[in-house]
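User: Predict the full complex structure for these chains.
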Amino acid sequence: MSVLQAEQLSLSYESVPVIELLDLQTPSGQITALIGPNGCGKSTLLRGLARLLKPQHGSVLLNGLAIHTVPTKQLAKELGILPQSPTAPEGITVRELVAQGRYPHQEWFQQWSVGDEEALQKALTLTHLSSLSDRVVDTLSGGQRQRAWIAMALAQETEILLLDEPTTYLDLAHQLEVLDLLVKLNQEGKTIVMVLHDLNHAAQYANHLVALSAGKIVAQGKPNEVITEAMVRDVFQVESQVISHPITGLPLCLPLRRAFKSQ
Amino acid sequence: MKPEIPWAVYQTKFFSLRLDRRVPWILCFLSLAALILFVLHIGVGEYYIAPFDVLNTILGKDLGDENYRFVVMELRMPRAILAWLVGAALGASGAIVQGLTRNPLASPDLTGVTAGASAAAVVFIVILPNTPQGWLPLVAFAGGMFVAVLLYLFAWRGNASMSGDSPIRLILVGIGLSAALGAFVSFALTFGELWYVQNAIMWLSGSVYASDWADIRSVFPWILICLPLAFLTARDLNVLNLGEDIAHGLGAPLTLKRGFLLLLAVALAGVTVTVAGIISFVGLIAPHLARRLVGSLHEGLIPAAAFVGGLVVLLSDLVGRTFMPPTEIPVGIVVSIVGVPFFLYLLWKREKV
Amino acid sequence: MAVQISNMTRTHAPKPILIGALPLCIAALIFAAAVSVAFGAADITLQTVWEAIVSFDKTNANHLIIQTLRFPRVFTAMLVGAALGVTGAIMQGLTRNPLADPGLLGIESGAAFAVVMGIFVFHITSLPVYAVFAFAGATLTALAVYGLGSLGRSGATPFKLTIAGAAFSSLLSSLTTSILMFNQRSLDEARFWLAGSVAGREMRLVLEAAPFFFVGLAAAFLLGRQMTTLSMGEEIARGLGQHVRRIKLACAAVVILLAGSAVALAGPIGFIGLIIPHVVRMFAGVDYRWALPYSALLGAVFLLLSDLAGRMLVRPLEMPVGIMTAAIGGPIFIYLVRWKVKR
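Assistant: Here is the predicted structure of the three-chain assembly.
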């Protein structure tokens, strides 16, 4: 099982320091959710983990190896990233999009091997897109489109999947559709690290939560441990009541009103 | 019930290939159309030769008329072949540039290669008219490459963060370079000696007039190497088109691939400038037409754009020669005059949908 | 305080600076104008310039130079520069494309085509007649482009305008080139005009053209507030109650008037419309009430200085200003894009 961790990581965005000397362990085989208010650095952290940003200090380690030393193509076989709001080229079909995920496994002389086809089919089946494979991506619903992108990341056949706000702009049904899919993928053995903006989704779907504020980790652990009224007040500046979900028993955060940090 | 796979897949132990199913058919059709035009092109003109006679002459049969041989083999055939080659190179170059910049309005001109080549050529023709003419193609090519390198340096070097919308920067820098070079060309055209200036303008407007086998020999090797290379890098273009972050996540060495692709596009466009001057618009319309025919995946798009481009230039040259005989309208101008309304029509047709 | 990750750095200077810089720019303009009048193939002191204005002496050769050659030149440069700066800003807002400039509507190629046709077919020779042809060509082309761009359901979208403009420009310049290629006389007569210049325009012509400019500039400044709203997006503008279609037409009319007059008076001069708005945007932001006047001022200053440079560089010859603006503007633009533009 691969282990992805950050060690004394410092990241900047356009020369503004966002994250400084952060340590993070993402438990393998589990779903980790990064939560926090706008501007806390969760997206930046994810991008740093995905090697989309060069760290100012420290490093990201995959199985103990600094990912900056790993050849890009090799890394792409172990780490898959789905950024926020990806745009598909015009007129591309689902099948064509998902096939792009095979890129790291291809060479100029092996452009579509049997293994590629099998991975494609598996990705389509897992995301229930087999019947939609010839549809143009732009014509799909939000949830279907997102599933197509996830299918692409699946075709990459990586053990770890990083997703940046995979549920943004989706309506409720589609949000749950995507999250359920991620749970299923996790059950199949994938490690998932994602940025989520909805606290309750994070509580219901993730095994491990990491709450960030101003570039620092404020709390991390199981949902029960992390989602507390105190945390919500400190990190999100919101007064809330945290109850136990009547069916799942996981924490459910009910916002009451905005709190203002005392001067 | 498994849905029908829309791809043609060719797999062996060491080599595999995947193409959109439509591609082989479309390429066949385009080749056929090109062949027909080719024969027509050779036959038509001041000295008319019937299509069958053209074919026979090419095949080496003696038809009794000595002139046939000369007109077909020495005058017209190289011109027709060159026209097609130039169009193919420009079409492929356009497809690459549009893929690189993720912008359907892009054309090879944006890379500054045409500006560079014209600046170099203008210097050559107007300012140093005494240097031997044979150097012109090389000079133009060198000028084009030089500008492209500048473009690459300005647009991509020093790009510290991995993200950032480089395609835009590429276009903007290209515009800046083209403008600065354009000023230079303008200067030469305004103050140079009239006769030379007229020569320069003629060269600048793109023509395959008086092409011969030597021209083909100088161009063909480049195209022979670059087109297949472009085809092989098609996958990279596909991935780059998904966005920098995703491309990076999929393991594409961005800067390297982009540099290589830019080089290919520039080489292809640059080499056409050396033998045919500036022919704009082919690099813009050919990929669009090709996209309509075979879709957006570059494995099919690049060959299709090449074939469409070849067809367009061949057709334009034919029209240029036969529209107002005996005056020959340079192919660059015909492409513009014919291509523009057609292009507009295509786009507006889409609007109605 | 949470660290703000935002790529929206301060996009414009605070209001006091905006207001304060205005007189500074005007002063710079006057200074540039004065210097332009003073320097040149025949050096003249600033003192003499002042005297030429205040106590004009018909017999003084220098005064004559100033009145007949320098003043018209400087006025032309100021008017044309201001017009181009403003139209560039409007075009960039209208098409929401940072690469737009007045040439986008085909104005320059239309004017060039008309002038060359005039020379070729009608054998026109004098500058004022060129101006008329240029204006007519520019206007007709712009109308055609705008009309073509408005066809279809969605009206004049930025995308369609850009394509229509690019296509028309390409077509017209091809046709223009064909004429120049086949007819040496036309080439000979047209090529200097085609390079764009502010020299040799008679005071009378400048004074005749001036009202067009003033009306256009005034109209543009008045449209400032509307343009700001429109530049946020058509749907937002409509939601705020703006008559989007009318405003777009008004903007297009102003652009045609100003750019058409500019190209009529000075020939095709590129690049001012493209870079000046970028520079202005860096400190005046996207508020068109400020951006437009500043674009006008900076455009005028830039053109004056370009012309000055053109006169200084190859003394006693003169480099047409159209060449200078591109030669200077190109590298500046590249610098901006490479080191300043984040997006």
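The first helix of chain C runs from residue 15 to 38.
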